[in-house]
Amino acid sequence: MTTVLDGVDRAALARAALARAEQRTGARSGLRVTRATVPTVPAVPALPPVPTVPAVPTVVAPTAVPDVVPGPSPDAGPSPTPDPSASTVRTAVPSRLAEPDGPAASTVPPTSASALTHPDRPPLPVTPVLAPLLPEGALRRGSSLVVTGSTSLVLALVARASQEGSWVALVGLPGAGLLAAQQAGVVLDRLALVPRPGPDAPTVLAALLDGVDLVIVGDGAALVDSDRRRLTARARERGAVLLSTAPWTGANVVLAAEPVEWTGLGDGHGHLRRHRMSVTRGGRGSAGRGARVDVVLPVRPGTAAAGPAAPERADRVPVVPLRMVG
C-alpha cells in the first residue's frame, strides 16, 4: 500500500537531509567525543550455550468420520488393507506466520520512492502572475527547470510553495541573501542555505532531494553531466522540484529572463522599486512550443496574470535653477 507523507513527516525528512548536507560541507561541526568523555563499560560475562530443542514431529489429523459407520457386508470378500495415505491428511501450515507486537511493528510511514511520488500529491503552486511561464501553471513534482538571467525570478517562483509549507534549499548561490528571499515572499523558517558545497556538491544535493521540496542549484555547485543526470533521476523519483540557474541537460522547462526596465528613480531622489523583464520559455514536451511573457518583480499581492506592464513613473519634482546670492 502506498502511503502519502504529511507535512510533519516531510519536515522531518527536510531536517534530516539538511543535517546530512551540513555534515558534508562542514557548516555544522559535530560534538567531538574524546576517550575521556566515554565511560568505560564493564565486560559482559559470556552466557551459557542454549540447549538444542528437539524437532517437533509432524501432526497428522484423521479424516472426518461419518455419523454412521456401515458394517461389513456378508457377501463381500476380505476387506483390503487400508492405504495410510488415503486415510490421513496433513494439516495445512500457513505460508505466513503472524508476527507478535514488538519493536518491528512501526507506525512510521515508509519513505520509499513510491510514497514520495504518489500521484495524489498535487504540484507545487506558484503565484498567479507567474503561472503563464509554466506549461501546467504550477511546478510539477519530479521536474527540472532552468532559470537564467534573474535570481529574483527564481525566488519569486518558489515563494508561493514556501508560504504553503514547502521547504526550499539554495545550493551554490553565495550571492543570494536572506533579505532578498524574504522580500520575494520566501518563508525563512523553511529555507536552507548551502552557499559553498565544495567537492561534495553531488552528495549534498542528493541528500537534500530526499527531504526538500524545492532545491535550487547555482553556479557554485561543481557538477558534471553525469551528476546532473543522476540528480534529475533522483528528483523525479523523490517527487522534488530541481531548479538550476545554469544550463542543465534534459531540463523540462527553460526560462530565460532579459531585463527591460527598472522603475522608482526620479531626478535626484527615489530608489529602485520594480523591475520589468521579458521571459522566454522553452524546453521539452508542451514547454517546447515556446512563449514570451512580460513579468514585473517584485510581485504585488492581488496581481491576476502576467503580461505587458506599463512602466511606473515617479512624480517629477520641478527643477529650480540656482542663482548667486550676495
Sequence stretches where pLDDT stays below 50 over 5 or more residues: 29-39, 84-118, 304-315
**Share in β-strands:** 15-25%
CATH architectural grouping of the domain at 7-23 and 116-256: 3-Layer(aba) Sandwich
Question: What about the largest sheet?
Answer: 8 strands, mixed
Helix content: 10-25%
SS summary, helix count: 7
CATH class of the domain at 7-23 and 116-256: Alpha Beta
Biased composition (Low complexity): 103-117
Region (Disordered): 67-123, 269-289
Biased composition (Pro residues): 69-83
Question: Which structural traits does this protein have?
Answer:
326 residues; alpha/beta; Rossmann fold; 8-stranded mixed β-sheet; two-stranded antiparallel sheet; 7 helices; 10 strands; 22% helix; globular
Characterization of the model:
By secondary structure, this protein is an alpha/beta fold. The protein has a domain of 158 residues: P-loop containing nucleotide triphosphate hydrolases (Rossmann fold, 3-Layer(aba) Sandwich). The protein has seven helices and ten strands. The strands form two sheets. Strands 5-4-6-7-3-8-9-10 form an eight-stranded mixed beta sheet, with helices on both faces. It has a two-stranded antiparallel sheet with strand order 1-2. Helix 7 links the parallel strand 6 and strand 7. Helix 1 packs antiparallel against helix 6 and helix 6 packs parallel to helix 7. The radius of gyration is 34 Å and the shape is globular. The chain starts with 6 loop residues before the first helix and ends in a 29-residue tail after the last strand. 28% of the residues are buried. About 18% of the residues have low confidence.
